[in-house]
């Protein structure tokens, strides 16, 4: 005994009325022996359908179907001027219906439990405003708030209870099938799955809702379910459905997908295959994609119309359209126009637009007027004009404010000693004090000559008087000692704040320094060349977005900072050049400041000069040596602040 199971989908019409077996979809009247269709599916003849319904009715009357104890779903399906309330459960519903006034209907189902706990269902129909739910220990009550007085009829078949509401002017036995709406309203949209079972020669259909209709679902809260292909090439966002077919006509499957998707699908003459497929809970667009691939079919979409045909027919159609377009283009007259370029170089624009010309088109550049002279068809000229409008935009400017801080700190300390023996005849007789012989003076004014141990302070320090005294004399000779010490502390700080404005993606250069002469000798004689000892800054800004409405734009800056300074080493040709360089790319927001640091040099040196062995004796060794300590620190910091120059307009 075959049994036809009835189901309802939100996009399919409900036809369960007055004891007839309800089928979802478009039901078309057919003469005896002809077939009717569920969205185009082949079904049994009227006689077979009637026989199956009679068998199902007898089976139901003998108690084969148990009494329902669980309510699984409730749906409201508009049918034009009518509306059907469909209840699904696990058996035959025991129910009572009564009217409370003209605008309220109460449906009680004793000994029933509900799978969900929905409080109300918004319908918004001309007959039915909403349905309220009441859950009690021994029953479930549905209260229907009517928008106007209506007549009702109740049908219970195979675990489904259909309550049909109609205006009083429409007879209840006049059943006309209305076409299903293309898409449900925003307040009635909910995630559902549809299962369609199809077997030949007689069709069995099952359309089963998965959950209750959600009420008042806001558009911003509804996110389409997506299913990504394994290779990540596309994403599917259609409503999920389940399909089960055996040797079904592919055109009928496509018609069902058209019902679910809301698109108008046109099937070509070459689509005549049979398909066997079973898909569970997949988006309809993924099911369509797989259906086309497995049958070597393709589709072309124009608006809400989808044309499905074989790949050969589609390629042929596209070739014909291309030939027709080429013929039309060849028939168009050639027109010459001049396009003046306002913000860019015409030669650069020509390179970008030349590939968009037709085979008969030409393009030349007028350098004097910075214009393009283009000869082509009217349609091509319009395309080129639109491209020029999108390309020839005002080039923004970026103002770069730099602050360069260079700090040099030097510290030098030197200790030395001079001592020796002088003859008595060289002393100042009148004063009785020691008077060193006048001669060459070293650091701090100390005498360089006539000393047995001559290790004064570093001669590179400024001349500062030293301290000298006589220890004693013997046999006409005097022992003299002179100590010299010096300390030098220097701090140099250079601050420069240059400012420069440049176009987007154009180089900007800031340099400050001097040119150092170098002499070179060759057969031709002595030549003098100059080498720059500069602090140089090269910046290339690039605005990442041209959107005028965007706030807080980012600027990509390519920065190259170079510092060339005169070195400490020198030779007859000239001094050496110390070179320091930093190159980087950084992303900065409009108006923010970036810092380039790290150009830092710290030099420390300790020099000790003395007599071997004697200078290493503890304490007394200081009589035979001098010591010089040098500390030098150089630091360079560069602060850059890019700012987009706003247009006066």
Per-chain topology:
Elements: E1 35-38, E2 41-45, H1 46-61, E3 70-79, E4 82-89, E5 96-99, E6 104-110, E7 113-114, E8 120-122, E9 128-135, E10 139-146, E11 150-157, E12 160-167, E13 195-198, E14 227-228, E15 235-236, E16 240-249, H2 250-261, E17 264-267, E18 274-283, H3 284-294, E19 297-302, E20 305-310, H4 311-331, E21 335-340, H5 346-353, E22 362-366, E23 371-376, H6 378-391, E24 397-423, E25 453-455, E26 467-474, E27 477-496, E28 499-503, E29 508-522, E30 525-543, E31 554-571, E32 574-589, E33 594-610, E34 625-645
Parallel strand pairs: 3-7, 13-16, 17-20
Antiparallel strand pairs: 1-2, 3-4, 4-12, 5-6, 6-10, 8-9, 9-10, 11-12, 14-15, 16-18, 19-20, 21-23, 22-23, 24-25, 24-27, 24-28, 24-34, 26-27, 29-30, 30-31, 31-32, 33-34
Quick one: how many beta strands?
34
The fraction of residues assigned to DSSP E strands is over 45%
What about the largest sheet? 7 strands, antiparallel
**Second CATH tier, the architecture of the largest domain:** Sandwich
- Please give the CATH class of the largest domain: Mainly Beta
Through-space gap between termini: 82 Å
CATH topology of the largest domain: Immunoglobulin-like
Q: What Rg, in angstroms, do the CA atoms define?
A: 50 Å
Mean of residue pLDDT values: 72
Number of helices: 6
Helix fraction, binned, reads 10-25%
- Pairing-aware structural class of the strands and helices? mainly beta
Q: What coarse outline follows from CA principal-axis ratios?
A: elongated
């Amino acid at each position: 005994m075959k049994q036809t199971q009835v189901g309802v989908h939100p996009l399919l019409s409900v036809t369960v009325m007055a004891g007839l077996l309800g089928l979802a979809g478009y039901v078309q009247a057919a003469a005896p022996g002809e077939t009717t269709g569920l969205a185009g599916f082949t079904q049994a003849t009227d006689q077979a359908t009637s026989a199956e319904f009679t068998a199902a009715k007898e089976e139901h009357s003998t108690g084969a179907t148990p009494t329902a104890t669980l309510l699984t779903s409730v749906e409201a399906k508009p049918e034009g001027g009518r509306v059907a309330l469909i209840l699904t459960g696990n058996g035959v519903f025991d129910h009572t219906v009564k009217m409370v006034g003209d605008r309220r209907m109460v449906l009680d189902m004793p000994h029933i439990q509900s799978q969900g706990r929905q409080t109300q269902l918004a319908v918004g129909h001309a007959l039915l405003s909403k349905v309220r739910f009441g859950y009690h220990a021994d029953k479930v009550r549905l209260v229907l708030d009517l928008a106007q007085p209506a007549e009702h009829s109740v049908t219970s078949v195979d675990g489904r209870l259909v309550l049909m509401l109609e205006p009083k002017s429409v007879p209840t036995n006049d059943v006309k099938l209305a076409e299903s709406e293309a898409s449900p309203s925003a307040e009635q949209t909910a995630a559902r799955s549809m299962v369609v079972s199809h077997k030949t020669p007689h069709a069995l259909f099952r359309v089963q809702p998965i959950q209750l209709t959600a009420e008042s679902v806001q558009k911003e809260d509804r996110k389409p379910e997506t299913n990504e292909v394994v290779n990540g090439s596309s994403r599917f966002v259609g409503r999920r459905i389940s399909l089960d077919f055996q040797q079904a006509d592919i055109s009928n499957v496509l018609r069902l997908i058209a019902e679910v998707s809301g698109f108008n699908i046109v099937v070509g003459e070459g689509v005549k295959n049979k398909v066997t497929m079973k898909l569970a809970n997949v988006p309809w667009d993924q099911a369509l994609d797989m259906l086309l691939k497995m049958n070597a079919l393709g589709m072309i979409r124009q608006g809400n119309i989808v044309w499905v045909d074989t790949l050969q027919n589609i390629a042929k159609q596209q070739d014909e359209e291309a030939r027709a377009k080429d013929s039309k283009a060849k028939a168009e007259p050639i027109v010459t126009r001049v396009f003046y370029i306002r913000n860019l170089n015409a030669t650069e624009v020509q390179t970008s637009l030349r590939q968009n010309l037709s085979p008969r088109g030409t393009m030349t550049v007028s350098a004097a007027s910075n214009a393009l002279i283009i000869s082509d068809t009217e349609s091509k000229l319009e395309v080129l004009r639109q491209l020029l409008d999108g390309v020839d935009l005002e080039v923004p400017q970026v103002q770069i404010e730099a602050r360069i801080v260079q700090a040099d700190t030097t510290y030098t300390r030197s200790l030395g000693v001079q001592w020796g023996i002088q003859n008595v005849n060289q002393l100042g007789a009148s004063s009785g004090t020691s008077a060193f012989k006048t001669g060459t003076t070293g650091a701090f004014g100390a005498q360089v000559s006539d000393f047995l141990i001559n290790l004064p302070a570093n001669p590179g320090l400024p001349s500062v008087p030293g301290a000298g005294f006589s220890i004693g004399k013997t046999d006409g000779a005097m022992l003299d000692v002179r100590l010299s010490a010096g300390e030098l502390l220097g701090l140099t700080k250079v601050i420069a704040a240059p400012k420069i404005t440049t176009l987007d993606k154009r180089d900007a250069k800031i340099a400050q320094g001097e040119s150092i002469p170098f002499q070179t000798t060759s057969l031709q004689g002595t030549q003098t060349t100059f080498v720059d000892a500069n602090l140089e800054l090269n910046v290339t800004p690039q605005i990442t977005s041209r959107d005028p409405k965007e706030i807080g734009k980012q600027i990509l800056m390519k920065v190259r900072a170079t510092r060339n300074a005169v070195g400490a080493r020198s030779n007859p040709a000239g001094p050496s050049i110390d070179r320091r360089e930093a190159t980087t790319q950084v992303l900065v927001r409009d108006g923010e400041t970036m810092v380039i640091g790290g150009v830092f040099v710290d030099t420390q040196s300790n020099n000790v000069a003395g007599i071997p062995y004697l200078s290493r004796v503890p304490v007394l060794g200081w009589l035979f040596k001098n010591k010089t300590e040098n500390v030098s620190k150089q630091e360079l910091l560069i602060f850059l602040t890019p700012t987009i120059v706003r247009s006066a307009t």
